Amino acid sequence: MNTKLQNLMRQATQLTQSGNLSEATEVIQRFLRGNVPDPVPTAAPAHSKESPLVLDDCVFEVIKPVSEPTLDTRKTAHTARPNTGASGEFTSGSHTHAGLTRRYKLYVPPGHAGKALPLVVMLHGCTQNPDDFAAGTGMNQRAQAQGFFVLYPQQSSESNPQACWSWFKHNHQKRGMGEPALIASLTQAVIQQYALDARRVYVAGLSAGGAMAAVLAGAYPDIYAAVGVHSGLPAGAASNVAQALLVMKSGHSGISLPGKRRQAGAPTASEKHPPINIPTIVFHGDEDKTVHPRNGEKLIAAVQGHAAAGAQLEQGVSAHGRRYTRSIRHGDSGSTMSEHWLVHGGGHAWSGGLAAGSYTDNHGPDATGEMLRFFFSHQLKA
Q: Keywords, A to Z (predicted)?
């Protein structure tokens, strides 16, 4: 890595830690435009108020890491009880676990009574919410037609002003910690309440939500039977804002900042991405300017240790003329362990999505349909 880029990362980190967030934002924005600045002296903290840093289309809240409570408490509150009609119901609720509370929405399909149906957990991207994400992916319409539940946890504006999941914070990247523990607890609460099929539970997400889905896949292989990551990043790709910037921009992470002390519990720069032990499907546009497509390759690489060597490659064209390359790897048992859909000409958007939601591209192959096909071909062992 060249000296200027090392200086940039050191400077952005120092500005963030000292509270000079407007200057850090300018440094980051200049870098994203391809103009790596020369180092400038950092000033004393101007204030301690928490503020966001803008990184292209993703916004990260800058806060001092704090230890999550270890109290094992969980509470789920529904603001609406479903009275399912022909189209099902889209209900609201909130869930508390270990001191964290998040709202959520749940799609309940019609005619579910007495049936042990599957569950798909959907994690939205930055600036999105459950309604927006549901509209863009069309997941509820598929759930109505195919008969499964859809759970949409919602990131709070108090935790992040732009509703980004905390995939880049080391205290939200492991089993039993932070947001992953909350989402897993919420998942189990919904399974129990509706007597769902615990062998057929899946998680998917877009961008920051995709990165958090990858965290859940690594941390809770006993809950989720398969994972779908769209335009996301591998678990452990970053443990702070500076590393998040680097891995989003280039797909490379793990630089060592001179003079920077590692926080207790944070992963070292040289650590590899944790392996993914469950079947994984990845969608990524090869012209994604927000999250480099190299991150999709690294996600697949994290699964390769559990899949047979070599990949089956397929070239195709979507119904709307978008080309793609599909890479398939099979496990030792012969079942499909991973699929990597590289959408040629695709940007940072849900492939085959609907215009009713944000960050969608209706020209690409149908990510919603392909993820569901992949999901329902896998289930946990009894």
A: Hydrolase, Signal
Reported as a single tens digit per residue, the pLDDT across 261-284 is 444 444 443 346 778 889 999 999
The domains located in the chain, with CATH, are: 3-61 (no CATH), 74-237+273-376 (3.40.50.1820)
The neighbour count for residue 83, using CB atoms within 10 Å, is 8
Give the tens place of pLDDT for each residue, 48-84. Answer: 232 333 344 453 443 333 333 223 334 666 554 444 5
What is the signed CA dihedral for 196, 198, 202, 208, rounded to 10 degrees? 90
- Beta-carbon contacts of residue 309 (< 8 Å; ≥ 6 apart): none
Cβ contacts of 117 within 8 Å, gap of 6 or more: 109, 147, 148, 149, 194, 196, 197, 200
Q: Poorest-confidence range of 132-136, 161-165, 302-306?
A: 302-306
Residues present in the chain in total: 382
Helices (H) and strands (E) in the chain, counts: 9, 15
